[in-house]
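Students often ask why we bother predicting the structure of a whole assembly rather than each chain alone. The short answer is interfaces. A chain on its own may look different once its partners are present, and contacts between molecules only exist in the joint model. In this exercise we take two input lines together and write out one structure for the complete complex. Read the inputs first and try to guess which parts will touch.
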Amino acid sequence: MSERYEAQEIEAKWQQQWHASGIDAACDDDDRESYYCLVMFPYPSGNLHMGHVRNYCLGDAVARYKRMHGFNVLHPIGWDAFGLPAENAAIKHKRPPAEWTYANIDQMRVQLKRLGLSYDWSREIATCHPGYYRWEQWLFTRLMEKGLAYQARAEVNWCDPCHTVLANEQVVEGACWRCDTPVIRKNLKQWFIRITDYAEELLADLDKLDGWPEKVIGMQRNWIGKSSGAEVSFRLEGSDETLEVFTTRPDTLMGVTYMAVAAAHPLAKKAAEANIDLADFLEECSKISTKEADVETMEKKGMATGFNAVHPITGASVPVWVANFVLMGYGTGAVMSVPAHDVRDFDFARKYDLPVKQVIAPETGDWDITAAAFTEQGQLINSAQFDGLPSPDAKAAITGWLAKNGKGSERVQYRLRDWLVSRQRYWGAPIPVIHCADCGAVPVPDEQLPVVLPTDLQPTGGASPLNDCAAFRHTDCPRCGKPAERELDTFDTFMESSWYMNRYTSPRSADAMVDAGDMARWAPVDQYIGGVEHAVLHLLYARFYHKLMRDAGLFTSEQCGDEPFKNLLTQGMVLKDGTKMSKSKGNTVDPKAIIERFGADTARLFTLFAAPPEKELEWNDAGVEGAHRFLKRVWRLLEKVDAASDGDDDAAAVKLMRRTIHTTIERVTHAFEHGFAFNVAIAAQMELANALQDFLPQGQSGKAAYREGVQVLATMLAPFVPHFACEMGERLGMEQVAVLAPWPVADQAALEQDEITLVVQVQGKKRGEIVIGKDAGQDEALAAAQADYAIHKWLDGMQIVKVILVPGRLLNIVVKPA
RNA sequence: GCCGAGGUGGUGGAACUGGUAGACACAAGGGACUUAAAAUCCCUCGGUAGAAAUACUGUACGGGUUCGACUCCCGUCCUCGGUACCA
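Now the answer. The structure tokens for the assembled complex follow.
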């Protein structure tokens, strides 16, 4: 048993054995409690990077740990296979994207398998397969029937290099999330899904997600951006037209001194028709891309339109201005300006010498309204019949007055907008719609689904090749039978990733999007693990989709919940030299090289040990070697298993050894149960390994304790380094293969100590330790402390004022000079 | 600006519910084995003073609560992540 640790051999052997025995498959028919562990599936770029490795090692540790606790675990994997990189590669290599995608999948599958991840490969899915996207098309047609999916002309974000529109969520600081090019606003007819109908539920259900990081919940809450206030209608002077505004501060309505509209507002355009200067100004505003709209640098600018509005309560005339800080995309594209109580309005009023009228006074103290805006709530002044009311009451009173007089109403405004799902791209799921000159946009009937994407087209970089594919484009209207055309846009790829977690429960179902029985067994996902970069995009859409599927009657909220992911772990990034790994920086680490040199187990161990899961992980080659060294050290523990000497039992040493073993079990288990602190779990096992290394097993009980320790170590290492653990287990003659062995339970008897070490403090400072009977009371402990030389000198000449005993931990003696 | 997370040795990081700060590991230094190297093993490793025992000091900074604070409270500074003329 003294041969070297040969990672490559061992890993090949066990991977083959696991595969042959099918131990990683989830059982659909099983009495065990089920547990669904899911990692975010990869885009098949062709190469596994360290971020993937970290993600999947975390997931695998969880899945294996749960299996060892007797759960029937679903741990699937698949491919988020539609998307732009495939088209770009297709252009470059002049091969259809399907070919590139499937070749990459084959390559990455090999890489994943080499890591020894315990996936149920029988459930593998690729979203570009018609058997998958068929059901996405099916659901979409249901949504069309319900009016939840619709086509509309709107100002949308267009990315030129990507040659497609983008959803709001895909615009990051005014630029395309994928290629970082500033987006252009275009007015186009596009397909949307009415996520705003679910805004309230998406917001309210965030409270149910107690297994999610606060950070992600906060980000989603901000994204949905609910604000309550009132809509107020201002009539335009000399006209029947009105200008609608939304405000969160109806209590300040009496302080309105002017109005401001966005440059893109119809009223601004109308005013510009007769005003060259204003037209120039609008032109200037439209050129400013959102990205450049830097708060610090961008000056507040405006220009009067010449229109005046009538204050709904006082009847006073207030001028209407165009202002570059008013956004057409939020609320109504127009605001009422209350310079006395809004910083922005205040600055603007100063610049253009507009009047400031204070209508809110602080509850206590004074406020110099000429110096700055007072933005707090307070008490109303200068507000006629509303004078004296505190802000909250005034909001209700003023909104009530407006409603009664038909000039406004209470209103809730969301920042969230409907999800734009159509893309002018080829490599995506076809939108199942047929455009008929007579019948309009007709959903493709169920029996004609899926609308299969032709996979042999060659993209060129411009418009989608679907436009030129007559066989795809021309069809007959399902309603009237006349010649008609297919919709040529495809779905946003976030559509596919929004429901894959549910599809995994019945990945081959040809009868339904998901099987209700399988959903009831597995859904929702117990533990979801992935990068925090999806906090808003994917995780919001997936939550939405789960509700859509529920409301389509595919499953019930009683059985599957209203939310797809019960617990979420957002892993940190993998860094090298303090920054994100990237090809352009040349600081990437190839997982393949690490595996070839040290084996998969070493790679796994290091990624789990070097940092807590949610923190960033700094790659460190020396650290990898350290992880490998640890495995070699554990391996060498095998040597002593049979070679123990036959001397006398050393009862005290054995007892201590067993105590170490069983406290380690408790520590490791605790680390797993509290936030998957794998780095701590591994550290505890390193300590056990060190203790075993220093232990000289003598006699029968010594041998037994030693073997027990090595066996416990092999078992508890299984979720992290499964091949290594299995080989150890086999060599130890363990009954079960290590990865299926029951998780060890600490033997309470072994934890018992007759004598304990108590830390003794005087005035809260550590002054020594005493060894004392475990049940010793305060008096006994105090007596022992007083008898201890090192402690006694701190008590000499002192009067004991107070004694605090923390059982099993410490004794604190409070004294004062006698 | 707002929201969130955080600030502990040379480094990554431990420390339960307020109870021995720095576990575990990396790096560094010293030593053993070796003809030599690799591998392996042993020792030291927050700061100051000391040969040592030990003492003082130390968890961003300033206060506070407590017998006792990395942990709780108040204030300040800084870092990171998210988000933003959101009306």
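Check your guess against this: The two ends of chain A are 67 Å apart (CA to CA).
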